[in-house]
Every structure is written in structure tokens, then in C-alpha cells.
Amino acid sequence: MAPSRCHRLLLPTTMAPACLALVLVLLLALCAAPAPAHAARALTPGRAGAVTKAQQGGSNATAAAADEYLTPHNQARAAVGVPPLRWSADLASTAAAVVAQQQRQVGCAFVDMGGSPYGANQGWASYRARPAEVVASWVAQGRYYTHANNTCAPGQQCGTYTQVVWRRSAEVGCAQATCAAGATLTLCLYNPHGNVQGQSPY
Fold it and tell me: pLDDT grade, residue 59 (50/70/90)?
């Protein structure tokens, strides 16, 4: 696997014609910075309402939203024996700025995180996806990953899974933006970044 590059995967869900409005198209991407010396992209904060309650500071609602991201991350990490992640308000704030800018300027397209010092998992859904659901889609890539030889099944992507369970990553912060027609863009940032080429995640 070449984990220092962005991993993108399109997963169309087949549904009956009557359910076309609910079609789920989930794109998964992982971009780990090649070296932590690169500076993060300077981004302007989003408009009010562009991001979910997970990014609004200091309230009980914020803690509950953070738990929606943390719980599935830490369940996946516990399953392979690595320490839990801590929530980072700073990373969440950075993620909120990124998704707000993407929502405002480029219609919720994925952002190129190659110049960031952080690891990044991104997801897009055609409907209002819950945080735990998005994280679960990243974790689901684990079925294609073989730890014994640190490889991904041919034709599959494992990068979002290996970032979720990367042993050296200690903290995470996430944000979502609601896009046109109710779609959702999700971004989680990880520090230190994972997916270092030639290293095993755990």
C-alpha cells in the first residue's frame, strides 16, 4: 500500500427507483501529510449554520457530538489493541473551517490535505449522514486489510481504516457541513498523522 497518498473510493448503493432521492454515494479519502513540517492551509471560518453542532464551542451538545465521532473510532482501536484517541477542539475547529470553505466555495468537494501536517479522513453522503455512520464506513474498510503483511486486498482501499487505528495518532477532531440538496461532507483530522509508508498501523 502507498499510504502517503490520498485514497478515494466511490461506493454506490443500489436502490429501487422509488428511493433514488435516498441514494447513498459515499466517497472515502485519506490524505496523510508526507512530513509534519508542512504548514496547514490557512482557511477562513465558515458562515453561521454551515457546520454542525460538533464545531460550536464548549457546550454539552458539543461533547455529545464529539462522542459520536470518538466512540466508533475508539471501538475500532480497542478491537486491535491500540490506545483510544482524545478529542481535540483545535483539530475540530480546523476541520470546521475546512468543510465550511468547501461548502461555500466548491460545492462540498473533497479538499486536498496533502500540505497539512495532519492525517485526514473525508466522507461524502447524498443525505444527512450521522457522524457514527460515516466513521463506521471508514472502519468497514478493515475487512480488506491484512495485518500480517500490512497489505490491502487488490482493487480495494484500506487507508481510512488504517488511519482510524493508527497506533501513534493520539487525537482527532471532526466536522461536517450540510451541502446542496441535504448532502453531507465529513472531515476528521488526526494528530500525529498516520499512514506512514512502510509502517504498520498497529
Answer: low
